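quick one, 336 residues, struct below
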Amino acid sequence: MPRPTLLFTPSIGSLMRQLFPPELVEEIRSLTDATFNELDRHLDEEEFAEAIVGKELLVTSWRVPAVTPGILERADRLRAIFHAAGTPRPYICPEVFERGIVVTHANASMSRVTSEAVFAMMMIGNYNTRQWIGTMEAGGWKERDTFVPGMQGIVIGIVGYGAITRNLLPLLKPLQGNRILVESSHLTPEAAREAGVELVSLEELLRQSDIVSLQTSLTDRTRNLLNRERLAMVRDGALIVNAGRGELVDEGALLAELRSGRLRAVLDVYSKEPLYPDSHFRHLPNVVCFPHLGAATGYCRLEMGRETVANIRDYCEGKTPRSAVDPESVFRMSTR
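---
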């Protein structure tokens, strides 16, 4: 039986080599009749439209051209899209599912590692790490009555109940004396009880939480979810953690709250990336900024490649790929 034809659209540059080391590239070649992008850049739209003709399988990742209705007209044999990243939503159109094309992603690998990053950001923020690094570098020390919020005996509010939150909860559960609040339109009261969390409204979560962690998808509904009015609801001294998407927050309103000293923040994502060199977020003493590092570990990237190849293998063996997604779940994901 002939092997299915496959188009690998990302450039096999340094980033893709982290996801697909030689042994995984060879496995793709053994499973499929693969055409790899040998350029030092991703294919542009015109090159993509030409290359997709006759291909049954497609591998996509960050910043590649999207599968639009126009591309689908050229993709006469396309049967499956394997997205080697998190949300495939920006890279496909609804017509993909209407044609019965299988779509997979590597979100399972990313969400496991991102949950660890969120946990670390909570700890960094609630131990006032930036302050103490500056104090120690300046030769200082704490006062006798100094204390930090820490990670026990507090209220942790999580906005969103996706894969990151589900992976984060086991990391939080061993901590003593905490309440965990969750706001989600997709979580039922029964499931919340089983998970050991309290399902609350966004307004309740903001008013009660010592840590507010944003882990929901960016959609039209959630853009600027934390606007000026909602930020004003957050209790004094609380920590805002954003490892979701920068546009979940009205950054101007957040900046005003942080400048006042009323709130603290650990930020990994921004509305414009890279973050401007002269951004005020970089220089505030109550803010820790990361350069979108959430899932940027070597282990995670290798796992993403392995997950993608496992999906290709499943397809080639006549199985439903293990990370296949349905239209409803895809179009709940972030728009970028």
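Residues 5-108+298-330 form a domain with the Rossmann fold fold (CATH 3.40.50.720).
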